[in-house]
Amino acid sequence: MSKSRFSRRDFLQNTAGAAGALAAAPSMFLKPEYIPSALEKVAPSDRLRFGIIGIGMQGSGLLTAALTLPGVECIAACDLYDGRHTLAKEIVGHSIPTTRRYQDLLDNKEIDCLIAAVPDHWHKQVVVDAVSAGKDIYCEKPMSHSAADGLAMVAAYQKTGRIVQIGSQRVSSVICAKAKEILAQGTIGTLTLVEGSLGRNDPTGAWEYPPPPDLSPSNLDWDTWQGTVPKVPFNPNIFARWRCWKEYGTGLAGDLLVHLVSGMNYMLGWNAPPKKAMSLGAILRFPDGRNMPDVHATLFDYGGAPVYLRLNLGCDTPEIYRFQGSKGILEVTEYAITYYPQTGEDSGPSYYTSGYPQKMRDAYVADWHAKNDPPPGKEPVLEGFTFRGDSWDDERPHLWKYFSGVKSRQPVVEDAVFGNNAALACHMSNESYFQKSAVIWDAASGTIKAV
After folding, report:
1. DSSP string over 325-369
2. Same-domain pairing of 268 and 239
3. Is residue 422 within 8 Å of 196, Cβ to Cβ?
4. In 3D, which of 309, 303, 305 has the Cα closest to residue 260?
5. Are both 295 and 436 inside the same structural domain?
């Protein structure tokens, strides 16, 4: 290669001198948040009695987790499918009363608060009815099925002053709390880009759940389950796989994107909808009759660093955030936080000077080294670090914070305002996909508009 021709890599390799070495990242363990044992004695006057609405895949998990917490007990359960009445009795005990009417739980004066894990198209009605009846409620994510539903839920929450907590549990995770602290300290410098991604590659991950074999109109109130959406004949697959259809669910955006958005907002201290969203997606892996995409990627404008969040049901990839800044990258995963530091400074003479004449270039390189090279033995070492902790998907801390808020009447982090702002990002992502256009949130009209 001619001496007058250098690639960027060649020039850096031949002229580097001041770059610091990257030290192996020390690993530290985060102490789990203290939650008393379920065996701990609690005075009868301090016990909380809750009812649960929806005892399917997610609801049964929430119910099981809640019963491991001290001072709480489930005294009533509701589901439109009778098989889940049996399941509730298996989890709680055969004496628990069950019903198909959630209004029975609202009328029950012995119930202090509620947990709701119902399809997205029922969230607004259940939450508004609950808080209007004087009940606090934990509602699964995403908070709403539409932007209009979310605004109605926020209005009811603010009018009644009840405790509302939305079920994206990362805001109660020690992993995300530590990441929030690190980001607030300015560790990564100027935030320049946020990336988040998650991929699955199996039918169950794509919501192709097997419906209960005995499911029929005789043991399921199908008409009520459909709610106010256009009615269709009884379909076990729609009941089990409702996330696949926009009439009942919110697809990848409401199931998975909402977790990425909620965690990101919490860690960055944001609590507002994005200003603009632009998404691309398609049904590529599971053309099973669904009308929601199985691959969905969205760019968000929050008024600062771009946010790029991508979801894929056709290839398994780690669930991860990368907060990129002028001083390095903070990588956050389900069990760990790792900081990869960068100086943000030249690590050697500028490769632009490969366009200088030889004599001029040699003089520049010599001067650069004289000004920037550290003394021998004083070379800087960049120190990264890793924190490890409990899974950010652990439901017990999130439920514990909800029940603690019900007892103390102190605000919870993931209230209806926070939950609505996260859900709006998901609705904007879906609207952009269906409209094939970038969209904005118009706060004045409370609507999502194409641009």
Report:
1. ETTEEEEEESSEEEEEE---S-SSS-GGGGGS-HHHHHHHHHHHH
2. yes
3. no
4. 309
5. yes
Q: Pick the closest to residue 7 from 346, 345, 352 (CA basis).
A: 352
pLDDT tens sequence across 123-181:
999 999 999 999 999 999 999 999 999 999 999 999 999 999 999 999 999 999 999 99
Q: Tell me the CA distances in angstroms from 446 to 284, 311, 393, 414, 449, one per residue in order.
A: 33, 27, 31, 21, 10
The reply to whether 408 falls in a domain is no
Beta carbons within 8 Å of 355's beta carbon, 6+ residues apart = none
**Are 324 and 194 found together in one domain?**
yes
Residue 326 belongs to a domain? yes
Of 50, 64, 29, which Cα lies nearest the Cα of 337?
29
- Omega before 341 within 30 of 0, i.e. cis: no
- Positive or negative, the CA dihedral 111, 115, 118, 123 is positive
272 in a domain, yes or no?
A: yes
Q: Report CA Rg, the chain.
A: 26
265 and 365 part of one domain: no
C-alpha torsion 276→175→417→410, nearest 10: -160
The residue segments making up the domain with residue 21 are: 8-26+344-379
**Contacts with 20 (C-beta within 8 Å, 6 or more apart), sequence order:** 343, 379, 380, 381, 382
Would residue 407 count as lying in a domain? no
d(CA 102, CA 122) in angstroms, rounded, equals 11
Shared domain for 364 and 306, answered yes or no, is no
Same domain, 336 and 206: yes
- 373-387, pLDDT tens digit by residue? 999 888 888 899 999
Whether residues 148 and 293 fall in one domain: no
Overall domain count for the chain: 3
- The reply to whether the predicted model has a pTM over 0.85 is yes
Rounded to whole angstroms, the Cα distance separating 446 from 451 reads 16
Residues comprising the chain, all counted? 451
